[in-house]
Specification:
With 196 residues, this protein is mainly β. Helix content is 10%, strand content 40%. It contains two helices and 13 strands; from the N terminus they run ααβββββββββββββ. The termini are far apart.
Length: 196
């Protein structure tokens, strides 16, 4: 039987305030930011201004951004998942204040961006919940996030990226292909982004 105590939840503003106090070196390692996410699970109701949903695709909702990091709420409808992707050699930490997600990690055996080809092998899967945040392994940063259909519920994950980036490489393990994509936000600070 687990003796792990449930930490009290905090408003998202408290997490933002804490992240803004961290020195730059904290974002170069994975332990300190992961510790903050573990100590400060976020209250679901405080996320309401940042949550938007789409039946076609998960949504990316910017909560806070500095030169050191960006904090994004990603909303996953039932059964949605990301592409297999990297983070441009930047660190990433994740927590799931709503629902339960799976982070499927991959070992990149080969990549030729000029030819758009790659070879990947699945390595492990990590469960992501409010009580168990995780960091992307800088040595093996290729992964995808899945909201399992059998969970039968929407989920929200909080992502801290350091430093902010606006493109990433996506991979198709099945087809052995890879390529750059441009990232975008669906909302910024709680306001919808209007497409040009």
């Amino acid at each position: 039987m687990s003796t792990r105590s449930t930490r009290p939840r905090v408003p998202i503003e408290n997490l933002v305030a804490k992240l803004r106090t961290l020195p730059a070196p904290a974002f170069d390692r994975i332990d300190q930011v992961q510790g903050v996410l573990a100590e400060m699970p976020v209250e679901e109701s405080s996320l309401a201004p940042y949550l938007t949903w789409s039946r076609q695709h998960y949504t990316r909702n910017l909560i806070d951004k500095t030169d050191l990091y960006e904090l994004i709420a990603i909303c996953w409808d039932i059964g949605q998942c990301s592409s297999v992707h990297n983070h441009r050699d930047q660190n990433c930490w994740m927590a799931a204040p709503i629902g339960k997600l799976l982070v499927e990690n991959f070992h990149l055996e080969f990549q030729d961006m000029a030819a758009g080809t790659c070879s990947l092998k699945a390595s492990n899967t990590v469960e992501l919940t409010a009580a168990s945040p995780c960091a992307v392994d800088p040595q093996e940063p290729v992964h995808r996030v899945v909201n399992p259909r059998e969970a039968n519920q929407r989920a929200v994950s909080l992502h801290v990226y350091s430093r902010p980036f606006d493109t990433c490489v996506v991979y198709s393990p099945e087809q052995g292909t890879c390529g750059d994509i441009q990232l975008h936000y669906n909302t910024v600070f709680g306001k919808p982004v209007v497409s040009a």
